[in-house]
Amino acid sequence: MALIEVKSLKKLYTTRFGGIKVQALADISFSVEAGEYIAIMGESGSGKTTLLNILALLDKPTSGEVFMEGKNIISINEREIAAFRRSQLGYVFQEFNLLDTFSIKDNIFLPLVLSGKDYKEMESRLEPIAAKIGIKDILEEYPYEVSGGQKQRAAIARAVITNPKLILADEPTGSLDSKSSTEILDLFSKINKSGQTIIMVTHSIAAASHASRVLFIKDGKIFNQVYRGAMNNNKMYERISDTLTLLTAGGVEVE
Ligand SMILES: Nc1ncnc2c1ncn2[C@@H]1O[C@H](COP(=O)(O)OP(=O)(O)OP(=O)(O)O)[C@@H](O)[C@H]1O
Ligand SMILES: [Mg+2]
User: Is 34 exposed, middle or buried (0-12, 13-18, 19+ CB in 10 A)?
Assistant: First the structure.
């Protein structure tokens, strides 16, 4: 059974003024097997964050269905939603969503506090992650005292510290220099090899070339998919690059 099955998702937004509708998702269907590492690419405004928010149960589609391990998650109740988010899901928000009144460390601990873990366990989980992604020195700082790249790394630590079955990451390397990006991508590859499923939205071909499959979204639909198969990262990079050329036909911002 697939871990996630998305069927004919459609999302219309009604704007605050005048009720003009924006079609963020037109018709999206795909499935994800447990253990996959998926990158999602597409132009700005093509619906990537909308899709992740629906998968994270933060937003509801206008129509269509999402199944997680066979269970229809669009129709589950608030309590089940909270339990799913707490126990199965790690979400790296595009805007980080750190709490300004909490230190970086307490922000990262938050999901563990919510699931009742003791302090010693939280510390021992944080240590290797903080070392790996280079945030040991800022753990006592507050979000407003650190850089965008440091906030992004804290948001990633918070999403992975619970060892969630599914990680949704919205441009997790968007604010990072190439050294920090490489550290994050290494961490994701390691996490994925240990069996966790990752869905990562990215504008970076270099980041996407770490994935086992890349989905390309255009006009609210899946435009194309690239499967890694036997390709190494360099070959994958070329294939993604070629597909983006087709997708944008004229060129839009990609790194
Ligand atoms: N809450 C909202 N209300 C109205 N329209 C919205 C809302 N959220 C997103 N949209 C619109 O839906 C479309 C898709 O937005 P979305 O944020 O999913 O794009 P994206 O692919 O994540 O873009 P980016 O790469 O810039 O992050 C855009 O046209 C956007 O303006
Ligand atoms: Mg987005």
Answer: middle
- Phi, psi (5° rounding) for residue 194? -80, 0
Asked if 141 contacts 107 with a C-beta cutoff of 8 angstroms, the reply is no
Residue 78: strand pairing partners: none
Quote the pLDDT of residue 3: 95
Mutate to test the pocket of ligand 1, among 9, 49, 203 (most ligand atoms within 8 A of CB): 49
Q: Give the torsion through C-alpha atoms of 72, 92, 223, 43, to 10 deg.
A: 140
What's the pTM value of the predicted model, to 2 decimals? 0.93
Which tens digit of pLDDT belongs to each residue from 93-128? 999 999 999 999 999 999 999 889 999 999 999 999
Protein residue with least CA distance to atom 19, ligand 1: 45
Q: In angstroms, how far is CA 228 from the centroid of its own chain?
A: 19
pLDDT higher than threshold 90 for residue 189? yes
- Span from the CA of 172 to the centroid of ligand 2 (angstroms): 11
Could you tell me if the CB of 15 is within 6 A of ligand 1?
Answer: yes
